[in-house]
Design brief:
Layout: E1 2-5, E2 8-23, E3 26-29, E4 33-34, E5 40-41, E6 48-54, E7 57-64, E8 67-75, E9 81-90, E10 95-107, E11 119-122, E12 126-130, E13 138-142, E14 146-158, H1 160-164, E15 170-183, E16 189-194, H2 203-218, H3 227-236, E17 240-243, H4 255-264, E18 271-274, E19 277-278, H5 285-295, H6 302-313, H7 339-353, H8 357-376, E20 383-384, E21 391-392, E22 406-407, E23 410-411, E24 418-419, H9 420-440, H10 443-460, E25 464-465, E26 470-471, E27 474-475, H11 492-496, H12 504-517, E28 519-520, E29 523-525, H13 542-548, E30 554-555, H14 559-570, H15 573-578, H16 583-586, E31 598-599, E32 607-608, E33 612-613, H17 614-633
Antiparallel strand pairs: 1-2, 2-3, 2-10, 4-5, 6-7, 7-8, 8-9, 9-16, 10-15, 11-12, 12-13, 13-16, 14-15, 17-18, 19-33, 20-21, 22-23, 24-27, 25-26, 28-29, 29-30, 30-31, 31-32
Helix pairs in contact: 2-3, 3-17, 5-6, 5-7, 5-17, 6-7, 7-9, 8-9, 9-10, 12-14, 14-17
Length: about 625
């Protein structure tokens, strides 16, 4: 899977490698495929002895009679190069393997149907493939062995999971031919696929570097960190990417911001960002800012954290951060009310850990641009209501908060009005801006922020719902005076964020409400099961899944804010940390070594959505580290 314009344009080039072994005079297929109509070709699963992560590397072991073959797959960091490593662990007779690539050239959201005019060039050790004129060519080679060209199409592969999701489930793939090699004990063979023009590194060298990398990531952890937390620290690096200069908004209103971006990034060099989740998501503003503390600051990766903050600050436009950098490199989309406010929280967390006056001076003008734009009004109805100092956000047909599912023109959870977490973030943004204004000596901006903060603090009391002893999810819904009383998890952020204006009794009531109505072993439900409209399973076609996304589905990232809020109320760090413990088992039950995006609201809380989600990993990692440090100080 190559990223042709990092970190986007992710393109499937090699779908899989069909592996077979010839041993004791018998040819044994070690792969398996399902085709339309239910046919299963190859039964490699019969010979699969184990699948595990070894030093962070996905590792399969196949038993063929008394022989044992190990297969590993890994990628070279920072390159569009993948390796398949085969090693014969034991055998009593000669063993040879055949490897048949199945290739494509398609966007990672689509499937390949029908033939394409692939051009194939080959010699004894490699083949070069170009799907069509102008397509990025790629090469497949073997470290020791031979290639035999034999182009052939395979039709109607059936992708069962896609069918369950109501998506196109058929695919056609081409094989350019077959690689063959003789395996000898302790002499690994590497099959290499690359879309880069430079020669790929030796497989053994890349593997050694990958095995050494975890030590760098786990070194900052407390010595008491269990193995599953060390595994999450290793997983954190999978989401960090380099981003080139994206296209910007060319509308007249964006001209000033474009000038700022141009001045801040005259070199045109790539900078850092965070992929929201695999396999489907790119780098998004909201997910990046929520994930940044756990993936960078908590692990002592301060230069990386500062680089990401600088990267996104360059794209501030009309006081907003982009929520989406589209896959094909179009202008960023500014359709979020919270990504910008989460940047303040990420910066505040960073400055708590790292004294960095240079970064403060560099970002302060952008931060104040954001504060004034929100105060005066910007896109999508985002503006401060002078009557209560609170932020209003939203307009018909938009989805601006993290509860952002939309299908066509239908917005499933529009939340137009004054959402509770948006205003909790607004309070914290104003507080940070006032403190930074004092540091840089801007008395006028400090007074402005302090005045806005005082007004918003007073207005936030309107969120208290005395009948249910918790916070309303949205007040002044659709510009009226109705408040949404449904029990949702957004209120927990009002307690977990550094500045909380609730009384101690109110804070405890919010935590108790979320524990009673929303808490599961894998996160918080997005809606209480007692509420009308609750959906307990995230399944079905696109419409059904989007409809369930925020109507009961469990979100793991919210477990971090819940644990921190629980500690704030009860003062028991060990108890709060225990809410994270069930995720240790999850690391061995879905995508090994990482955490899913979501889970079903109903037991047994099956894992759903992206199989590796940045903010899920980040918030669990960050919260465990934070609570462990509190335990050590006690």
């Amino acid at each position: 899977m190559a990223s042709l314009r990092p970190p986007v344009e992710r393109t499937l080039l090699v779908a899989k490698i069909e592996l077979s072994a010839r041993y004791l005079g018998i040819e044994t297929e070690l792969s398996a495929n399902e085709f339309a109509g239910g046919a299963i070709s190859g039964q490699g699963f019969v010979h699969l002895q184990s699948f595990a992560l070894r030093d962070g590397i996905p590792t399969w072991r196949y038993a063929v009679a008394d022989a044992l073959i190990e297969q590993q797959i890994f990628m070279a960091p920072g390159a569009n190069t993948s390796y398949l490593r085969l090693e014969l662990l034991r055998a009593s007779a000669p063993l040879s393997v055949r490897l048949k690539p199945l290739v494509a050239y398609r966007d990672y959201h689509s499937h390949n149907r029908g033939t394409q005019p692939f051009q194939i060039e080959s010699d004894a050790e490699h083949c070069r493939i170009q799907a069509f004129a102008g397509a990025r060519p790629y090469r497949i080679s073997i470290s020791q062995g031979r290639f035999t060209a034999a182009p052939e199409w395979y039709w109607n592969f059936w992708h069962r999971a896609e069918a369950e999701r109501g998506l196109d489930a058929l695919e056609d793939l081409l094989t350019p031919g077959t690689f063959a090699a003789d395996l000898s004990p302790n002499q690994p063979v590497y099959l290499v696929a690359t879309a880069d023009s430079a020669p790929p590194g030796a497989g053994a060298d890349v593997l050694d570097a990958l095995r050494a990398a975890p030590q760098r990531l786990t070194a900052p952890l407390p010595g008491t960190a269990p193995e599953w937390i060390r595994t999450l620290a290793q997983a954190s690096d999978q989401f960090i990417v380099r981003r080139g200069v994206a296209r910007t908004d060319t509308s007249p209103g964006a001209a000033a911001a474009a000038n700022v971006r141009s001045a801040a990034n005259t070199s045109g060099a790539a900078s850092s960002s965070i992929i929201a989740g695999y396999p489907w998501f790119a780098d998004w503003g909201r997910d990046t800012m929520i994930s940044l503390p756990g993936l960078t600051t908590a692990l002592g990766r301060y230069d990386l954290a500062a680089d990401i903050l600088r990267t996104y600050a360059r794209f501030v436009d009309r006081g907003m951060l982009p929520n989406v950098f589209p896959d094909q490199g179009e202008a960023p989309r500014y359709n979020t009310a919270d990504a910008t406010l989460w940047m303040f929280h990420a910066l505040d967390d960073y400055l708590e850990a790292k004294h960095d006056p240079d970064l403060v001076s560099e970002l302060f003008p952008a931060l104040m641009t954001i504060i004034h734009a929100h105060s005066e009004g910007t896109r999508h109805g985002i503006r401060v209501d002078p009557a209560d100092g609170l932020l209003h956000a939203g307009e018909p047909g938009t989805q601006l908060t993290w509860m952002d599912a939309k299908q066509g023109d239908q917005v499933f959870t529009p939340r137009v009005g004054k959402p509770v977490e948006i205003n909790a973030l607004w309070l914290n943004a104003l507080d940070l801006a006032a403190r930074l204004a004092s540091q840089v000596g801007s008395d006028g901006e400090q007074r402005f922020c302090q005045s806005a903060l005082a007004s918003a603090r007073s207005g936030f009391s309107r969120f208290w719902n005395p009948e249910r002893a918790c916070l309303f999810d949205v007040i002044d819904v659709d510009g009226g005076h109705w408040s949404d009383p449904r029990i949702r998890p957004n209120q927990i952020l009002a307690v977990s964020l550094p500045l909380c204006t609730l009384s101690p009794a109110q804070m405890r009531a919010v935590v108790d409400c979320c524990a009673r109505e929303l808490l599961t072993s894998h996160g918080l439900r997005s809606l209480s099961p007692k509420e009308q409209g609750y959906i307990g399973r995230y399944s079905g076609d696109v419409q059904q899944r989007d409809g369930a996304y925020h109507m009961g589905t469990v979100w793991t990232w919210l477990l971090g804010p819940f644990a921190r809020a629980h500690y704030r109320v009860h003062g028991d760090a060990r108890l709060a940390q225990s809410f994270l413990d069930p995720l240790a088992q999850h690391l061995d039950s879905a995508c090994l070594g990482t955490i899913n995006e979501i889970f079903d609201g109903d037991a047994p809380h099956s894992a759903r959505g992206c199989f590796a989600q940045a903010w899920s990993v980040a918030e669990i990692l960050r919260t465990w580290i934070d609570l462990e440090r509190k335990i050590s100080k006690a």
